[in-house]
Design goal:
Radius of gyration: 24 Å
Strand order of the largest sheet: 1-2
Strand content: 5-15%
Number of domains: 1
Number of helices: 14
Distance between the termini: 58 Å
Number of strands: 6
Helix content: 55-70%
Order of helices and strands: HHHHEEHHHHEEHHHHEEHH
């Protein structure tokens, strides 16, 4: 008999695995394109600063890619060990989509990654540029197929049920399901912002170490400007994604807003303590009617309430409110901080330039180097917890898919995973910081920062 303890522990374990895994693709997706930008700038200008930037950040890419692959393999095992009902029920859809991801993306990355990492001075410049572009394209295609599957789990269509098993009837409808464009756009922009602040943050750290090389100044400028450009686009995409979610998963939006009764003039709650047992909020602080304005573009717009998603028998068919409510606010709060930090940086770059950046701002940006991770995880929790109690919306419940294994066994593996993941995250952040310190202590660039000769990125290895 599957107990609630087993179900809860299995959910926490898979959540821990995917939380750890998502950190690394969030960086590699956009960092691949940034590396291609560095490479193209070098090809066009022959300016060594772009080669220096490439050679530093390609090491970060390699480390991040390796951890992403390893954590992804571990996560995939759990489909069989913890969630056999998932593939048993929807494997006819999930299996091909995961196979497409491997065939069109992972193989592409694996074939050209070696050239990208080790071929800078060993292959013609055009081939190295091509390899960098194909790896970047591969990471994006990998995200595409994974998000197709994830989006289908939220807004399934193009299928039929036969004896309780999902069978595909329209692959076009499955791939381009109603939430896929918004979810894909939101994730790609989140990756871009994560990388923008990582670039700016690590470069700010090197500037604080008195590393005033041209490559660091240029990378800092790229990070700040990229963040300043992407954050308003992400805010717009988030609004569009929210409206799509309101249409297809109104119970999730109700949890995000902490709204219990279907009504108009719903306030945007800045703070509240949702009480699911009492079906109310405590200590509310909000802006009157703003949630109705955002979601319905009308102060009197009717916003669905959580009480509409409780059956006559008392079964709750909406997600747990507090985690969704708070994770959404953390995501938005970090996004607002990113907006303030990047636009302030862009203004300071325009008025002062990199060399006159206030040290206080550099300290702030170095502290925000991994802020994209916080926003991404908060957004991911909002999305995935907000789907409960469904694993596939309206098709497969979470409790119907979990494996019948003893709770102590799940708890033991969960604790091992948490210990290993905590160590790896600390090690990852420590290695990147070490790389920044090592690069900052390196010899300064020669006065002539022009690379002469052929197309190879002839930058000496450290």
């Amino acid at each position: 008999m599957v107990t609630m303890d087993t179900l809860l522990l299995s959910r926490i374990q898979f959540g821990a695995n995917i939380s750890f895994h998502i950190l690394f693709p969030t960086i590699t997706i956009a960092l691949g394109w940034v590396l291609l930008f560095f490479k193209l700038r070098f090809n066009a200008t022959r300016d060594r600063k772009w080669a220096e930037a490439y050679m530093f950040w390609v090491k970060v890419f390699a480390l991040t890619f390796a951890l992403g692959v390893v954590s992804g393999i571990t996560m995939s095992f759990q489909f069989g060990t913890n969630w056999p009902g998932f593939m048993e029920t929807v494997g006819n859809v999930a299996g091909p989509l995961l196979a497409y991801e491997v065939l069109t993306a992972f193989f592409l990355e694996a074939v050209f990654l070696g050239i990208m990492l080790f071929g800078a001075s060993r292959v013609p410049g055009w081939l190295h540029t091509l390899a960098t572009g194909l790896v970047a394209f591969g990471t994006t295609m990998s995200a595409f197929w994974i998000l197709v599957l994830n989006s289908w789990m939220h807004t399934p269509q193009g299928y039929e049920l036969r004896d309780g098993i999902v069978h595909a009837t329209d692959w076009w409808a499955i791939i381009f399901n109603p939430s896929m464009p918004y979810r894909l756009g939101h994730m790609l922009l989140a990756s871009g912002l994560t990388v923008a602040f990582l670039l700016a943050g690590i470069s700010a750290l090197r500037l604080l170490m008195n590393d005033r090389s041209a490559s660091v100044r240029s990378t800092f400028r790229v990070g700040v400007i990229l963040g300043a450009v992407l954050i308003p686009v992400q805010i717009l995409m988030g609004d569009m994604h929210g409206l799509n979610t309101l249409e297809h998963q109104p119970q999730k939006v109700a949890a995000m807003e902490g709204n219990w009764e279907t009504q108009g003039h719903v306030p945007l709650l800045l703070f509240a303590l949702p009480d699911e047992a009492a079906r109310t909020n405590h200590f509310e602080i909000g802006i009157p009617s703003l949630a109705s304005i955002i979601l319905k573009h009308d102060p009197a717009g009717i916003v669905p309430g959580l009480n509409d998603f409780v059956t006559a028998e008392g079964e709750v068919m909406h997600p747990p409110v507090a985690p969704v409510f708070w994770s959404f606010r953390i995501m938005v709060g970090v996004g607002m901080l990113m907006l303030l930090a990047s636009w302030t940086g862009a203004f300071l770059l325009w008025r002062r330039g990199v060399d006159a950046m206030p040290r206080l701002y550099l300290y702030g940006m170095s502290g925000l180097a991994f802020s994209g991770w916080i926003a991404t995880l908060a957004g991911w929790y909002t999305t995935e917890i907000g789907r409960q109690p469904w694993l596939v919306q309206g098709v497969l419940s979470t409790k119907a898919a979990v494996a019948d294994v003893p709770a102590p066994m799940v708890l033991t593996t969960l604790l091992v995973y948490l210990a290993v993941y905590a160590g790896l995250i600390l090690a990852y952040m420590g290695v990147i910081t070490y790389m920044a310190r090592k690069a900052a202590r390196g010899e300064p660039l020669p006065k002539d920062e022009r690379v002469k000769g052929g197309e190879a990125m002839a930058v000496p290895a450290e």
